[in-house]
Amino acid sequence: MRDLRKLTDELLVKEYVAGNSKCIDVLIDRHKNKIFTYILVCVKQRELAEDIFQDTIVKVIHSLKAGRYSENGKFSSWVMRIGHNLIIDHYRKEKHLSTISNDNFDFDLFNHPKYSAKPIEDKIVYDQILKDVAGLVALLPESQKRVVELRHYKGLSFKEISEELGVSINTALGRMRYAIINLRKYAREKNISLSIS
Predict the structure, then answer these.
(1) Local structure of residue 43 (DSSP, 8 states)
(2) 104 located within any domain
(3) Is the pTM value of this prediction over 0.70?
């Protein structure tokens, strides 16, 4: 009788697909430690790792039977990728289903200022601050104003700003630093408060 353990992964896959069900046992036995260890390292919980390992094997069997394996010489990598995708699926599902109960807190979580609408006064003050800041930015020297606009209004990185303006990153950083110093000075001179309180 032939020793299936001496066959390559690819031959075992071909024979399994052709109907020799013992081949899948040899494949699983050959790679189970590597696959399970990888899953366990990722999820850090033995029971969860065992569940995901079982799901991985089931998916491998279904995929082989459906003829969805075509990676010659890379069987273990293919199985590891299936396991990895199932780990990702688990965490996506867990994140999607996570809920918060009010019973777990000493205070009413859902009546917390963080979750309530901001008072209209705060919005008015905030809008005024934005207007004041825009007025102060207009007072800056052109080189500093340009850096502030690119950084805070267009969201560019300092590397992108340096490329846009044709200056070094240090020059862009220096201009931003002086812009902030000048904005604080202008705010003090005009007695403008830039905080909601």
Answers:
(1) H
(2) no
(3) no
